[in-house]
Fold this sequence. Notes:
Distance between the termini: 83 Å
Number of strands: 18
Largest sheet: 6 strands, mixed
Helix content: 40-55%
Oligomer: single chain
Amino acid sequence: MNHAGRKGEVQAVAVATVDELRERIRRKSRLKGRQADEVSLADIVALIGPKPEGGHPRDLLIEHLHKLNDAYRCLHDRHLVALAKEMNIPMAEVYEVATFYHHFEVVRGDAKAPGLTVRVCDGLSCELAGAKELLTKLPAILGRDDVRVLTAPCVGRCEQAPVAVVHQNPVLRATPESVALAVKSRITTQPKSSGKSAFDPAALALKSVSPAPSQQQVSPDFVGFDAYKAQGGYRLVAALLSGQQEVEPIIKTMEDSGLRGLGGAGFPAGRKWRIVREQGAAEARRAAPSAEIPSGDGPPAGGPRGVIYMAVNIDEGEPGTFKDRTYLERDPHRFLEGMLIAAYAVGVGACYIYLRDEYHGCRALLESELARLQADPPCPLPVIELRRGAGAYICGEESAMIESIEGKRGEPRMRPPYIAQVGLFGRPTLEHNFETLYWVRDIFNKGASWFNGFGANGRKGLRSFSVSGRVKNPGVKLAPAGITMRELIDQYCGGMPDGHQLYAYLPGGASGGILPASMGDIPLDFDTLQPYGCFIGSAAVIVLSQHDKARDAALNMMRFFEHESCGQCTPCRVGTAKAVKLMQAPVWDNVTLEDLNQVMIDASICGLGQAAPNPIRSVQKYFAHELGVKA
Length: 631
């Protein structure tokens, strides 16, 4: 600092010593916040590999978190710090993703990793089959400090209820004794099956796809790569890509078949192909006026602009739904061929398959069969990547799934723009449910009229109904669109169990509403249930008898919605929690509940909050006698 002297002279005054200045510089040069230690960094590199020249891709964050979680059965905070450094991502970003998903558990400091975890499904079908009693008995029977018992939302095995999962090994029709045996034996991974089976879904039309309950297996035999090719598999897509057929007739066949999206929304598949293809063409023209639509045999040259992506949704988190798992674990290559046909027709350069984390056996199966396909491709293949969910129902919503594929929190996006315009990595994206693609090969081989030739009560097409609850033979039933509830139970499910009569049913899983037995003759299909305040969605049918209460079923569903709300918007986050409290009262406060219903419907960002009131309104309208008040 400088001061004027007595004669106007400027004199220097020291404010710090040389050593003090050096220490100040050293302090400023240190990074703020917690820093990664060498041991943790070595752990990360051992799991995810050395850093590539361009750095680790940001979209692989969730995949890397899974590797950590599998290796240590938790996420140690020291590993999160090291992963953030290795991937060059802010620590806050890594932490917010890790804490968003239910299957990741962050452990702080020197705390020990959780021991063996047994998860008991508390979905409605499992609750009807005795899951509450199982949950009550298991902790005392297992009696070990290193084994913990937790509840889990629907694990997608409703036809095998009740279900417990010992780490990653499902125990079907679980009893305390069978779960204790699995724990004692340390059988913690799902067993593998052979790949030499034969499976023809078209031959099962108007029949039950699932075997009888006594014949169901954790890992049924499946059609492997060699067996699928021997049965004529991949001939169709190879012929298409060889130039034997133009794209327009392919899309026209899809439109004529009447196939609609079978994940729940029901958007016509052929129309979706045309929209996304045209969107990709527009993008390509903006990028280079002379550019053509990508042929589907890989990402086009010249960079990412003009690339169309495909995102395949196998999250299947809607309670009561298990059709995708049933087909996938038996016949994976029929789906993969359908995906390749769609990729060729639309001009897709890269396909991302998003599989729910609960399907451990399906994941191992897809990984091995994709490797077989890529090692011996029957035709030029697009880029194909398998991505793993992490326990978030909201990621069944298409834009939330895309956020998750990109390695982010699975929060729905505001629309517009729609994902056909701005989807995965900002590019036009074709999004499809697994089952929609599964039927593509048979529709082309047998003709559009084969598929739309089925139907009942004025409806067209086939539907795979996942039926569970109070029926003798639960499972996937490949029935005509438009079949009624009574026909489905009597003709496909062997009727109701002895001592049970149809009282109510959920036609479309948790969000599809609840209807009374008196409305059991309504055709089940897209657009037929909306006048009654319900919808078919993914065709997850849960049957209730006179021994059950619709209000209990609605409460089970609302607890599920409360647990699975992503928390992004207040109407859904707060509304579902408030609804659960109100629904537990002996007499419902219908005025307040209806107020909540309307706010959730009007102001929620996505379909979770918008559809959550459906079970409440159904009970208020059709089961008022259970509430102690007049309708």
